[in-house]
Amino acid sequence: MENHIALPAFFLGTYTPRLDEKGRLFLPAKFRDRLATGVVITRGQEKCLVVWPHDVFAAEAARVMATPMGLRGSRDISRTFFSGAEQGMPDKQGRIVVPPLLRGYAGLTKDVAVIGVGDRVEIWDQAKWM
Question: What is the rounded distance in angstroms from the CA atom of residue 44 to the CA atom of residue 60?
Fold first, then answer.
């Protein structure tokens, strides 16, 4: 019998779904419950996308807005974080739409890697991730 440690609702693992011709992406089944109430998709580091549950996005947004606007780096972070952000809602089949602007930023075409990163999910072009 395997022993499992009870973990909080972390996003874990690597999955390789495909984007369809409309830019829709099936979320991994293990992620769907946590993201069912809606997501925010933003630009991430190293040309990936970040999918945030609403509550985690709100907490991260508060941290970004608390940085001093007198610092150039703070302004750059705010611009990157908010300007490309898109709210979305998974459909009944567990798909989200990845907007064209964000697909272009991350270089996403068809084959993608969806990875769990604790409190968030990242979407990568599969060739860049693997």
Answer: 13
